[in-house]
Amino acid sequence: MGIFKTRKNKKYSYTPRYWENNGEGSPYQITHKFDQYRSTVGKTGNIKDRFVTAWDELKGQSDRRVNRRILVIFAVLVLIFLFLIDFDLSIFTSRR
């Protein structure tokens, strides 16, 4: 049945006329920018295996500096949003 099978993309193999192959590959090859750094690209299999490898890659390559930077940016954006809507920030301080 053609409903459950997905069509494969056609390969584009253009070789320029005046180009010398020095072993670095075709300059017209279309690849994603981060394919060389990711382990989940190009593998065939079911969706569960792809999800498991992507999850393992995410767990193994965490960077604390990036996570901390994202949290700081998020906190600053929240404070700017609260300032724009005139939220009363005095509820976070204790009265004595």
TrEMBL record:
Transmembrane regions listed in the UniProt entry: 70-92
Presence of the UniProt keyword Transmembrane helix in the record: yes
Alphabetical keyword list: Membrane, Transmembrane, Transmembrane helix
Protein name: Riboflavin synthase subunit beta
Phylogenetic lineage: Bacteria, Pseudomonadati, Bacteroidota, Flavobacteriia, Flavobacteriales
